[in-house]
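request received
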Amino acid sequence: MTANISANISADALSGGFAVPPVAAAHAFREVLEAMARPGTIRRVAGAQPPAPLSVAAGVALLTLADGTTPLHLAGAADCPAVRGWIAFHIGAPLVAAGEAVFAIGTWAALQPVARFRIGQPDYPDRSATLIVEVDRLANDGPVLTGPGVEVTARLSLPETAAFRTNRARFPLGFDTIFTCGDRLAGLPRSTRVEAG
Amino acid sequence: MTKAAFEGRRGWMSLLAKAPPARLAALLPDLPAHEMLRSPETGAVMVQGRVGGTGAPFHLGEMTVTRCSLRLGCGAVGHAWVQGRDKAHARRAAAADALMQTDRAEEMQARVLDVLAAEATAARGARATRAAATRVEFFTMVRGEDQ
Amino acid sequence: MYVAVKGGERAIDNAHAWLAEERRGDPSVPELSVAQIREQMKLAVNRVMAEGSLYDPDLAALAIKQARGDLIEAVFLIRAYRTTLPRLASSRPVDTAAMAVDRRISATFKDLPGGQVLGPTFDYTHRLLDFTLMAEGEPPAAAALPLVAAVSPQRDGGDCDPASRVPHVTGFLNRDGLIEDAAPEDSPPPDLTREPLELPAGRPLRLQAITRGDEGFILSLAYSTQRGYGRTHAFVGELRIGHVGVEVEIPELGFAVEIGDVELTECETVNQFKGSKTEPAQFTRGYGLVFGQSERKSIAMSLVDRSLRWRELGEDDTGAPAQDEEFVLYHCDNIQATGFLEHIKLPHYVDFQSELELVRKLRAEARAMKEAAE
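response:
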């Protein structure tokens, strides 16, 4: 442990958290819950100003869901000193390799191969990872979603369908996914069936 | 940060955390203007012990802890983690930590930290003298077969 | 199955109001303050902190006041409160050899380096009611000895630093290889407050369960081993009570700071061990570490810890309760126990109705068969 770690946390890392954490986290949790419960709906969130390249929505999701007891994997460009410092101060989540992560964040390309992430065990399916996937575009078009929380069908601009079909086939095991784009997010739980649109 | 400066900060942060809150408030009644980076927040720290005192760690139970981070007008950032649920204590300790990184450090050292350190040593000493008074002085009786 | 029963709301409100009045007792008697409970009912506070698994004397005292002195109810309040706290960090393992000791005794070595320090103990009191405590007045001041004579490893060695480390008694036996080692290791321990208890449990998980377990239950189990149900021939190698610093790594700074201290009671037993197929004859150890001045609990904990180690040490399973990990770990938590026990007093009208109908049906069938036979 060097004495210089604190110097690595830049002044920017200390700002950009929730102003009133209990209230902001409660609002954000409700949005994430709605997004997960109704796959295909896109929700708007606010309150976090994380350092680049993280989006506002990714920052909100992390501040709301992660803490010092949830190992986090930073994939690709998300693994930079600014993000590490921000997470150390505001969240305190231990940063780990993909296979140990409870949460992972990055672009879909950076998260590949997703087979690295935990999918739980038959007696504890909850011991699995939630992937926070940063996308350039998030809209209700493209692949067709059906399953729990979807009344008839929904559409969501997923980066691909094969990986989510494989994931669904292992139900009740599997990872869950939150897509983030700017200040908007959408959920894709492991229970959702995905067809190319 | 040099090694000495790092050890110094560890030391004063600990002294501020362990100071009786009322005493710290008496020694440092007025806080400089500051911006909150993390408002005082109470949570728990899991305390670990070791099997047999030296072996594998295990979880003993939690204790309450309050933390706070703030920034002074000059840019100095202060952090505090203090045992218990006293939010004013955490805020004051964070402000003192920040002041120790400014040109007021010398004054803080003399007016606050040295006083707290002396009082902590005296309190520890008072308890140790009571313990010492209950130490058993054994007299081994001379037994016949030893002669 | 439970059914929601409406109509009790006013009765419940009135019951709570009466509870508050009964809690206060006779208003002509001065009300207890939380600070008075914290300072003068300290061992009750310690027990609530240990079994509530949260070190905060003010909160434990408040819980005792609110629970009208029912310590298990107070533990329940603390357990409920602690679930609302975000977990900010885990501490570095506390260093009990650096404890500022108030009490330190050994039943195995009379002349242990550093000396036997009795501390504020009940041990040599006569257990006669002290009627002077019913009268007003200040107690006599405790005696104090100058610090040069205080606990320190080198009594006659000149420079006696009272803050110096107080080595463990088992360390002296360890030098000759007469006692098993507790080698340092740093694998992250499991946490039963975060993950469901899974068996077989390692020793760190067992110790976490026992240190927050019910004192009465652990005491009885330990006593049962002494009476022969899984005998382990324990001596108290060392018992120490005092304060240790708690060091926490500060994530935003990247170094650890001692942010406070906790009072702990630590007990190490030295147990006879005749050797097994794989191990030579040597002494083995049982370990107890409990929040606060909790002497009975920590001795009992170290006996039960040692008893549960039969498999690892190649001893026989005699079928004693204190050797049965599942029995001990699943039943030592008094909040789980009291929750399940007390819930049977809550409405079970539908369950009971079905039982009632079953009994009536069986009786009717039996009567019909009897009549048919006649």
